[in-house]
Each structure stands twice: as C-alpha cells, then as structure tokens.
Design brief:
This protein is an alpha+beta fold and 187 residues long. The protein has one domain: Nucleoside Triphosphate Pyrophosphohydrolase, CATH 3.90.79.10. Helix content is 21%, strand content 40%. The chain has helices at 47-59, 85-91, 141-156, 181-184; strands spanning 7-16, 19-25, 34-35, 38-40, 61-68, 71-78, 94-110, 118-124, 163-171, 174-177. Strands 1, 2, 3, 4, 5, 6, 7, 8, 9 and 10 form a ten-stranded mixed β-sheet that branches. The longest helix is centred in the C-terminal third of the chain and has 16 residues, at 141-156. It is globular and about 50 Å long. The protein starts with 6 loop residues before the first strand and ends with a helix. 30% of the residues are buried.
C-alpha cells in the first residue's frame, strides 16, 4: 500500500427546484466524470462554512446549508491482477484517500459562473434516483450514492446520521465502487 494521507473534503449537494448541480471535472482523480462541487476543508472552518465557500468559489452561487449528511471515507485503489478478491484487495495500491463531508445545500442567490474545476450543469434529481442510465454512468459513483441518498431524504424527510467507508477501484480509465450498499445501510 502507498503511504497516502487522507484529505478532508466537503462535497456540495446543491439542490434547487428539483435539480442538483454537478460539474464535469477537468482534474484527476475523476477527470471527465460528473461530480459534486467541493474541496478541501481549511483550518478553522466548520464543515458548513467550507461547503458554502467552496460552493461560491466553484459556482458563483450563494448557498445555505440544510444539513450535513453522514460522513464517509473513500479510497481509490489501482486495479489488481489477482482473481482472488482478498488477494486483490491486499495487493491494490491506494492512489487517494478522502474523508468526505457531504452537505445538502440550497441556493439563496448569486449567478452561476464558469468554474475553474470544470463545466457546470444542472440535472433533474428525478433522473438520478432510479436505475442506471447513460447519465448516471458518467457520475462519480460515490457522488451518485450521495445524490440518491439525498433523493430518499427529500422523499421521506428522514435525517441521516452515520459514518461509512467507500472503496473505489481504478480499472484503467474507469472507476468501480466496491460497496455502494454500505452507504444505504448507514441510515
């Protein structure tokens, strides 16, 4: 395993009029994928302050936090040539490790602006909450799990409280989420 320190990151689930804001990342590790805006938590910031700052920096929108969703960790591992799952997991190299603080946010003002992180787009939540389709296959899988959890929360008005870990394996240029059901069991 590589000696990789975890990065503490906020993810902004910016919801407005039944839509969620995503960006097509122009930087690794998920370059070319649709992802939630977000970034590193700075020293002295609360999670919600960091989310509002990141939302504004990356989108130009003023937002308010509607709550922090369950915290999760994510590891991106390189693909292993082993066919045995246990051997593959132990032989995989960790490329990146994140502690993710997803924050549900709503727009209060501002103007959507071009982002230095990638092209921004609004997608209807109703298109993302169900089965896989061409759009969902373009979304970072950990982010899609969070979006679907937000859809459930909005439908059921249910608060979530938990911490879980997401394992992502890099397979060439694609990424495969190893345990998406873990997040659904966390609430």
């Amino acid at each position: 395993m590589a000696n990789v320190s975890p990065l503490t990151v906020v993810l902004c689930l910016i919801e407005d009029e039944g839509r969620i804001l995503l960006l097509c990342r122009n930087k690794p590790p998920y370059k070319g994928y649709l992802a939630l805006p977000g970034g590193k938590l700075h020293a002295g910031e609360t999670v919600e302050q960091a989310a509002c700052r990141e939302a504004f920096e990356e989108t130009g929108l003023h937002t308010v936090s509607c709550g922090v969703m369950p915290v999760l960790t994510e590891s991106i591992r390189t693909e292993s040539a082993h066919h045995d799952a246990a051997a593959a997991a132990s032989a995989a190299t960790i490329e990146a490790h994140f502690i993710l603080f997803p924050v549900w946010m709503q727009v209060t003002g501002g103007q959507l602006q071009a982002s230095p992180e990638g092209e921004l787009c609004w997608l209807p939540l109703q298109d993302l909450g169900g089965s896989a389709n061409a759009t969902t296959q373009q979304i970072v899988q950990t982010d899609l799990v969070l979006i679907r959890a937000l859809c459930q929360e909005l439908k059921q008005k249910k608060r979530m409280h938990s911490v879980c870990h997401m394992d992502v394996e890099r397979r060439g240029e694609s990424f495969v989420l190893q345990n998406p059901e873990d997040y659904g069991q966390a609430f």
